[in-house]
Amino acid sequence: MASSALAHMSGPNSQLLRVTETGRAPLSFFLDGVEVGALTGDTVLTAILTQQRHVHHSEFSGEPRAGFCLIGACQDCWVRCEDGARIRACSTLVEQGMRVVTNAVSSIKGGAR
Ligand code: FES
């Protein structure tokens, strides 16, 4: 699907509301296996949270987490890519075709790559 046709704004299930810089070039990535839209220059955290309310589930409580500091300090936004790479969502830019997994507790366990 053309990335420009995918929603990159915010919806009723979004944690973040996109209010500025809406003219950046659209791209698409895969969020838990579903192709969704984002904008060039979005962090993975922004791209995810304009689609849903969490970036992963706590490995301790299983509760949904959406990051905390948004500046790379708290370690609360680690997610996995489908290839097993572990990325910090608030300090990694989303890329065209990136495949991110947020829907499993096991997605954040294990060492960083
Ligand atoms: S939100 Fe704190 S490190 Fe990413």
UniProtKB/TrEMBL annotation:
Keywords: Oxidoreductase. SUPFAM superfamilies: 2Fe-2S ferredoxin-like. One of its GO terms (molecular function) is iron-sulfur cluster binding. This is 2Fe-2S iron-sulfur cluster binding domain-containing protein.
